[in-house]
Amino acid sequence: MTIPEMQWAQVVEQKGGPPVYKQIPVGKPGPDEILVKIRYTGVCHTDLHAMKGDWPLPVKLPLVGGHEGAGVVVAKGDLVTGFEIGDHAGIKWLNGSCLSCEFCKQADEPLCPHASLSGYTVDGTFQQYAVAKASHASNLPKEVPLDAVAPILCAGITVYKGLKESGVRPGQTVAIVGAGGGLGSLALQYAKAMGLRTISIDGGDEKKAMCEKLGSEAYIDFKTSNDVVADVKAATPEGLGAHAVILLAVAEKPFQQATEYVRSRGTVVAIGMPAGAYLRSPVFNTVVRMINIKGSYVGNRQDGVEAVDFFARGLINAPFKTAPLEELPRIFELMEQGQIAGRYVLEVPHLPIRTEY
Ligand code: 8ID
Ligand code: ZN
């Protein structure tokens, strides 16, 4: 297999972007790394945060974003044992971690102080060839389609983990805030596969139709509802509120509202990360209704294995649209405007750049 010296990539050269489609050198895998020829990569709202630089976490510049990459292993370092050349592999947000700190030892790899992040602190998957630590990359069964599985590598793992963190049991009701987006559409499918009932909160009729198709029992349109809190409660069994709320929206308001419609003893899980936002909840109600408020951040390696396994068993069927890698700036614009129902998956050009003629 010949690996070219140069490749196409979307490169953010300055804070705020836009990404520039250009040729850059192909990276070389270290002893514990694999080089993956990326075929498809999802576009996560995190990639937009990275381009804007709106989080209090320094981002690499120039940056190749992307952390939902699915492709084929084309090279590997001498220490790699879990992958052979030709295997299908997924590159996740957590590109690598030290594996020896207290958090890594307890399977909380996302909390590792030395973690490297794909498309944020190291170059990600918006390029033809991407490097990842073999210990964290996902093994993808060959029968799994590489386009549909790409969003599982961040969105799928993250919502699956968040649902587990919520502590809800089969039969209970979860409110998914931002249900019409990338994480939201997958949350509806994982929830269904886990035997949970769902209420969707998002805006617009396209997202309503999608959420209902994905098995949601109710849809509350935050853009037209006069009272989101009352509407969510009314949609829950006995009007007592949702057993858990999964916050995926990129807006602060729902983070201030969620404890008003979570059921007593219920759990609010913050996953979306609107820039500069705060969680807010009245102390009195939080105490006397015994409300649990927590954050959830991607997932560990085993969560990744389980999330891919749900998908491989055919339980997760969220819609996605495809576009060529070249169109990333247009996808970011649609995302900024909240106009994407589900996920966009970019097709990465297959052919190498010919440097000799
Ligand atoms: O590990 C993590 N915690 C993690 C992992 C991956 C992504 C966190 N994230 C974060 C992203 O960085 C982003 O902040 O989750 C958030 C959602 O990512 P996404 O699903 O990729 O974004 P999207 O596809 O744009 O979906 C967001 C949805 O929220 C809706 C929008 O209409 C859109 O469908 N929304 C908004 I903006 N305001 C809303 C509101 N007030 C709302 N829905 C309900 N109520
Ligand atoms: Zn992501």
From TrEMBL:
GO terms for molecular function: alcohol dehydrogenase (NAD+) activity; zinc ion binding. InterPro entries: ADH-like_C, ADH-like_N, ADH_Zn_CS, ER, GroES-like_sf, NAD(P)-bd_dom_sf. Signal peptide: none annotated. GO terms for cellular component: cytoplasm. Pfam families: ADH_N (PF08240), ADH_zinc_N (PF00107). The keyword Methyltransferase does not apply. Residues 16-346 form the Enoyl reductase (ER) domain. It comes from the Eukaryota. PROSITE patterns: ADH_ZINC. Its EC number is 1.1.1.1. Its cofactor is Zn(2+). Keywords: Metal-binding, NAD, Oxidoreductase, Zinc. Belongs to the zinc-containing alcohol dehydrogenase family. This is alcohol dehydrogenase. It comes from Aspergillus ibericus CBS 121593.
